[in-house]
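[User] Could I get a sequence and structure tokens?

[Assistant]
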Amino acid sequence: MMNPFPYSDTNKRYHTYDYYLRHRYGTKCARIPIDAGFSCPNRGPGGEGGCTYCSARGSGDFCADTLLPPQAQFAHEYERLCEKWGKRLPAIPYFQAFSGTFAPIERLREIYEAVSDYRLADGSRAEIPALIIATRPDCLCEEVVAYLSTLAARYDLTVELGLQSAHDATLRRIRRGHDFDTFCRGYRALSEAGIAVCVHVINGLPTEGSTIEDRAQMIETVSRLAALRPAFVKIHALHILRGTQMEQEYLRGEIRLLSMEEYVSIVCEQLTLLPPTTVVCRLTGDGAQDALIAPQWTKNKRAVLASIDRTLAREQRYQGMAFSDAPPTR
């Protein structure tokens, strides 16, 4: 039977990042995580001590050695991957750790221009068609957005914004340091500047993981997000990592985590609400092996993704089938 989802040439019923890369650039690409030494306004003076789930590396646990400058991190990983594949593929630097716009403009230019101009041994430039910069919606002043727009004129720039939840009570509970309206303002500033946005959502956050009513909150987050028609999204389950405040809450029994079955069911419903054109960059994830406390099922990504595929097929669901084309309300 023909796959009912138009943005797929496999059995997938959602718009995968692999499909996007192959159809955008004609090939797979190397996405290379980089820790450029940024910090986070939520951790410093005037902040709230950081998000309760965030690790000491600010989501950069899989980046290279932070003692290396960003260009050296990129070079090390890029050359390693080229040797592994036996050929050079287009590379996408992914500035993943902390808040990638939380620095003076001069520093941003220094970092992003150096990495994007990486030269090979023969002096030619590496093929870098795109950049990804992860940041917070409260780190997007007018000057920063203007600079990002210049990058977007030269590369396929994606700015990754952490939303996590559209519910302010949850955002306060996890000490996120901003509300949903702040997210919407940041999102719109980027969109109006012609910059693609990838929105990050976490399922199973405290106050959203225990009851049927909590499940409805997770569905509502994606429903409100869908109205904004994001270019990209990332969804994964809450992880408990060593050294975080949430670790202590979990050990005290204050946090109930989703089972794999619950998570798969929620994700399948969320996918039906997203626009079919939205690229789904991630539907599962895990923490670093030495840092992850729970849930242990997140370590088996293949099993999670396979369960999502089976559930969508069994229930005859696919991304966008319940998407409402009504104009955004916020």
User: Anything to note?
Assistant: The CA atoms of residues 239 and 287 lie 7 Å apart. Confidence is low (pLDDT under 50) at residues 326-330.
